[in-house]
Amino acid sequence: MNFEIAFLTEKIGSHLNEKRKAIIEKVLHNRTRHFTVAVENIYHPHNVNAVLRSCECFGMQDLHIIDVHEKYKIQKRIAKGANKWTDIHYYEEGENPTLNCIQKLKSEGYTIVGTSPHKNDIYLENFDYTQKAAFFFGAEKEGISDTVIKHADCFVKIPIYGFTESFNISVAVAIMLHYLTLKMRNDTTLNWQLPTEEIESKTLEWYVKSTRNGKKLLQYYKAQMLQTK
């Protein structure tokens, strides 16, 4: 472990009880970037907050929000603090924020998956969960944009056996993540966890977030560390 991170983690950790530290360790060892979710131009803040909550519950470290309408607002009653532990990436600038998001995720090795009925779609149970994948969910009425349809590597759909043609977006995200993360976690050959160095840096970050006056304590111990050098 990096000396600075190790020093600061020990110092900040001294302000937390062992139960809290054990919870942080457990959650971090279940975090993943093997799968990620991107939502595109969602009109109702309630839906985005519900998606965020589902992502955090299923161990997603990132959520990508493409929003050309208005700034996404966190609704504490719905998100239930999920925003505190999830890395949220916004795409609002430029001529085509959706394409910017797709290009970024492709550069990070993600397969781009459109979640909408399509002529070349496959059912969720037939999706190859071993590949690193980013799932794109579109607006409530329109679905995914033409940009996603054009640049997606594949399309996935959830089986539906009723008259209704689609699920609410937050429900669809929860169903997909439940199925895929269960398959992922049961595969002992799949390397889906965060790298060790990231777990270490996140441990310090979450210790600070879990400690009263954590940011002030962090600055204090950083100054103390410099004095000992």
Strand coverage percent: 5-15%
CATH superfamily of the largest domain: SPOUT methyltransferase, trefoil knot domain
Average pLDDT reading = 90
Number of domains: 2
Largest sheet: 7 strands, parallel
Name the overall outline. elongated
Tell how many strands the DSSP assignment holds: 7
Strand order of the largest sheet: 3-2-1-6-4-7-5
Characterization of this structure:
With 229 residues, the protein is α/β, with parallel strands linked by helices. The chain folds into 2 domains: 3-26 and 194-228, no CATH class; 32-186, SPOUT methyltransferase, trefoil knot domain (Alpha/beta knot, 3-Layer(aba) Sandwich), CATH 3.40.1280.10. Helices cover 47% and strands 14% of the residues. The chain has 10 helices and 7 strands. Strands 3-2-1-6-4-7-5 form a 7-stranded parallel beta sheet, with helices on both faces. Helix 1 packs across helix 10 (214-228), helix 2 (18-28) crosses helix 9 (196-210) and helix 9 (196-210) crosses helix 10 (214-228). The longest helix is centred in the C-terminal third of the chain and has 18 residues, at 169-186. The protein is elongated and about 65 Å long. The two termini are 18 Å apart.
Summarize the structure.
With 229 residues, the protein is of the alpha/beta class. The chain has helices spanning 3-13, 18-28, 45-57, 76-79, 82-85, 97-107, 146-151, 169-186, 196-210, 214-228; strands spanning 35-40, 62-66, 87-91, 111-114, 122-123, 133-137, 154-157. The chain has two domains: 3-26 and 194-228, no CATH class; 32-186, SPOUT methyltransferase, trefoil knot domain (Alpha/beta knot, 3-Layer(aba) Sandwich), CATH 3.40.1280.10.
